[in-house]
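W.,

You were right to be curious about this one. When I first looked at the sequence I had no strong expectations either way, so I just let the prediction run and decided to look at it fresh. Below is the sequence, 553 residues in total, followed by the output.
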Amino acid sequence: MESLSFQEYICSLDPATLPRILRICSGVYFQGSVYEISGNECCLSTGDLLKVMAVALEKVICEDTETGQTTELPPTFKGLFKPASAPGPYSTPRGPFLEGGKQRGLTLHQAVGRWAGQPRPMLCPTISPCALLLHPVYEVHATMHLRRDMVKIPSTLEVDVEDVTEEAQHVQFARPLLLSEVLGMEEALPTRAEILEGPAGPAIFENAWVPRLQRGQWLQLHGRTHAWRVLASAPSSGRHFLLSSAYQGRFRRRPRQFTGVQELAAGLRPRQQLRVVVTQDCEGRGDDVPPLGVGDRLEVRGLQGNGPGTWLLCHRHGEEEEEEGEELLLPLDLGGGFVEDACDSKKYRLAELLEQQPLPCEVRVVAPDPELERDTLGALPALRLETRLDQPFLVGSFCEEPEEGFEIPPRWLDFSILLSEEPVHPLAPCTRRSRVEELTEAFYYRLLAQLPGGLAPPPPRPPKPAQAGTGPRGRSPSSPRPPVPGPPTTSPRLAPPLPPLPALPQASTPSQHSHPGPPRGAGTESDSSEHDYETVDDNMKKTIRKMQAIFPF
């Protein structure tokens, strides 16, 4: 078949004969041309094949033969047409249009259907009394080799084509897939696949196999894995990890730490008791809020009230076992420091830990995974388990290393592949190295943004009332007091540290702890009148012994 312009071929095409295979003969540039087709760059080179699947009328350009003006008609145009019966090729007769009867006229689709190589003059009184030339523009839906999506090409594209349907019946138009699409094609697994385009965007894992996912690399895809994951962070180093449920290390719980009463209230769990020990002195607020001192043992009962008037009900145990203790109502904006009063020496597996401990929780790896050559988690002093993730993963391996497998999260790490048609029966690889994956910092925060409420900051604390209280049980707290008002150059006066434990109890004197103060006459008191330092007595030693008994590590 001789070559035709794309417009001529499509206008003369019978839709009933689809699909048809076309070969590109030439374009604007004979070596090949790059066109913007459906928002995507598409290169049509001489010799390329197109498989035309459907043709849809996009618009009709209507040309007035007398004035040369053009009008675009949508496919839904309701006017009727009739052929112009003038002797000349483009003469413009004016006459009555047949109304009623059997010959009422042709619809727009019927009129352009009479387009046979050259447009024929038509009459349409809705548009003009003169003869009109109809130039249809079609949207051609076609597939191309190694293109994922159907391309939509306008019929006015300036290329020449020839129909090679009969001689190209054996040609297969390979369609690339995204790795995420393979998740729903378990019947096609296992299989081999060639990477057409590597992953786009920043890296998600800090490992050795992700950088090898490049164009031209061959993979073996074995199937889906049913392991779930736990997102974890190391507070001491700022590193982030993804732990597989197949991880064989053992964990030990660490007591939770809380900064302020608001975090304490957030740490409450249904049907679980929460007992804490105060680790930082907290000033009281008059008669309503008594002060808290280091070593105080609190049992958190629950919240009372609503809105701004919400309080946390706690029970403070007495210093001695026989003491009854007292009920406290603490405002949520109260500061301080608390540590969970729990001593659990049991070693947990990951699944067992999640069954008994709600997340988030802090743990330490006390027994590394024995099957890992190097377990990074075993060297960390603490690990915060944040949330469980049920993300689907695919087990894969490089064809040159079929026994060393890894687990890919296609929804996080997607790329274009081409499946091989050759049947393969590879052995299931070992995926030990995917039990612990270190995340990049950028991906960690992107992942948090995808979790429900992941990046929602806690509500701000209300401003603390400017009211000073007394220390716990009538004693002055060891935390620094606010600075005494004075000239702008005056610096705050800091309380001196307590003497070391071996020293005998002695009262501190101003001569032992001298600090620069405001100038005389600024309205401040002397050192001896402003500070009344507490000695290290038996009560303090007893408190320290309590704190040492809390921490099992």
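Here's what jumped out at me. The chain has a mean pLDDT of 80. And, maybe more interesting for your project: The radius of gyration is 40 Å.

Coffee later to discuss?

I.
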